[in-house]
């Protein structure tokens, strides 16, 4: 299936002969589960062959989508059925069939289901443990088995197993299911974020809502947003013509500048401007999954890989000069995506100097670095207008613009909130929240007070602003 499991050597295609059970069974007792399996396949259990593919846990919904599409395409010969009894958490499907036939540990049961996310606010029922009878593309009888991950028992991946009396039939059915998984991929076009689960540190993939910001909500110096859009949206829109002209599509964009200036805000704006692109977000400890993120991005292109605060992974210099091992994993992942892939690597950092040598030593990974600076006077005026939406501001904003030199967009946003809170507190009966001069000046004085130094630092205010008298 286009590499859903092959890249981690989790995918494997093998033929296993289910061992004859008759020698181990006393009295030839009948087992309804085995009868159901062999009755559909038309061969004894000893002659059944199985091909298997192993997938990441977060591919479970895709497995279900592929199997459902296959059943709709080829028809279902028998209904789904499950397996009851024994220690099901420790056995794979074939192991349970063998144990059921040899020792009577497993018998016919109900299908186990679980719920899997297929979007930020959508979920679907998927088979956790079950089998269904159908036919291969050539008409031979096959049995499809799905086994979900079970971290409680150390089973960290999902398994798709196809049984048949013919290896060729089982392989053809499995391959077609994987093709249909690609066609019905529930991850395509979504905003995804890697995280770490509590079970043995294995990765999780969660769905996030796609931000929707208009251009007026992004306040940057003149020309900065245009440059960012040309390098991301512009290449996406003209991708076909660029490829035809022999140009590459993969691009790396680094947004750098002090904390709180709007780097993440700009990233969120770009996510909304690329509604057809898959976005994979990496932050914090999830950055160690950058290789998997790059693989997903290549598979689900057009796509964007967002790595926030990338300077944090460059701090450990104990193994490599110029950056830690994780930084080089990121650069390797960026290099591993082909130039013709419509993939954008979008990096943000508060400290570009931490990355400069590593990026210079490996040219081509990042082909545009854009500074997101502290807002100038015009920018601060625009931010005051932006964050005043919903308020009735009668105050003169010019003195506030002058008094806030060196502050960040985050500082301005918090200033308006504090002014609004003061207005509500002082004039609780006012039907509309009206911000007057006193509300803004007192809120600003409070934020510039010496006791608020840590708050100002957390909001990203510059040293220049912090040196000004309160």
UniProtKB/TrEMBL annotation:
InterPro entries the record matches:
26S_Proteasome_ATPase, AAA+_ATPase, ATPase_AAA_core, P-loop_NTPase
GO molecular function annotation: ATP binding; ATP hydrolysis activity
- Ranges for domain AAA+ ATPase come to 249-376
Q: Name one Pfam family in it.
A: AAA
Q: Please, which domain of life does this record's source organism belong to?
A: Bacteria
- Supply the alphabetized keyword list: ATP-binding, Nucleotide-binding
Keyword ATP-binding assigned: yes
Q: Which family does it belong to?
A: Belongs to the AAA ATPase family.
Give the protein name, as stated in the record.
ATPase family associated with various cellular activities (AAA)
Species in which this protein is naturally found:
Amycolatopsis saalfeldensis
Taxonomic classification? Bacteria, Bacillati, Actinomycetota, Actinomycetes, Pseudonocardiales
């Amino acid at each position: 299936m286009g590499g859903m499991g092959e890249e981690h050597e989790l995918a494997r295609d093998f033929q296993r002969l289910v061992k004859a059970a008759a020698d181990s069974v006393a009295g030839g007792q009948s087992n309804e589960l085995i009868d159901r399996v062999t009755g559909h396949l038309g061969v004894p259990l000893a002659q059944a062959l199985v091909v298997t593919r192993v997938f990441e846990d977060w591919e479970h919904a895709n497995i279900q989508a592929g199997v459902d599409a296959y059943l709709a395409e080829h028809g279902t010969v028998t209904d789904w059925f499950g397996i009851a009894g024994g220690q099901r958490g420790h056995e794979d499907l074939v192991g349970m069939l063998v144990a059921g036939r040899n020792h009577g540990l497993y018998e016919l049961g109900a299908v186990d289901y679980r719920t899997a996310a297929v979007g930020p606010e959508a979920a679907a029922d998927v088979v956790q443990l079950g089998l269904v009878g159908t036919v291969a593309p050539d008409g031979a009888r096959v049995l499809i088995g799905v086994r979900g991950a079970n971290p409680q028992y150390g089973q960290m991946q999902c398994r798709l197993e196809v049984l048949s009396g013919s290896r060729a039939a089982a392989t053809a059915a499995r391959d077609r299911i994987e093709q249909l998984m690609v066609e019905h991929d529930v991850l395509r076009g979504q905003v995804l974020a890697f995280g770490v689960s509590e079970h043995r540190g294995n990765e999780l993939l969660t769905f996030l809502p796609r931000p929707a910001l208009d251009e007026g909500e992004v306040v940057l110096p003149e020309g900065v947003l245009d440059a960012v859009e040309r390098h991301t949206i512009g290449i996406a829109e003209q991708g076909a013509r660029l490829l035809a002209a022999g140009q590459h599509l993969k691009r790396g964009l680094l947004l750098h500048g002090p904390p709180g200036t709007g780097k993440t805000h700009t990233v969120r704006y770009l996510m909304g401007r690329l509604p057809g692109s898959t976005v994979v977000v990496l932050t914090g400890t999830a950055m160690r999954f950058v290789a998997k993120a790059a693989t997903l991005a290549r598979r689900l292109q057009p796509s964007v890989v967002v790595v926030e605060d990338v300077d944090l992974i460059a701090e450990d210099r104990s193994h490599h000069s110029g950056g830690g091992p994780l930084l080089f994993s990121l650069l390797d992942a960026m290099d591993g995506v082909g130039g013709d892939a419509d993939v954008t690597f979008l990096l943000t950092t508060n400290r570009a100097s931490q990355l400069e040598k590593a990026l210079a030593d490996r040219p081509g990974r990042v082909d545009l670095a854009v500074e997101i600076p502290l807002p100038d006077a015009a920018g601060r005026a625009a931010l005051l207008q932006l964050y005043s939406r919903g308020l009735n501001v009668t105050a003169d904003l010019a003195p506030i613009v002058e008094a806030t030199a060196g502050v960040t967009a985050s500082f301005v946003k918090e200033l308006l909130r504090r002014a609004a809170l003061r207005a509500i507190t002082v004039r609780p009966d006012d039907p509309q929240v009206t911000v007057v001069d006193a509300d803004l000046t007192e809120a600003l004085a409070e934020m510039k007070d010496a006791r608020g130094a840590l708050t100002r630092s957390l909001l990203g205010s510059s040293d220049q602003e912090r040196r000004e008298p309160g």
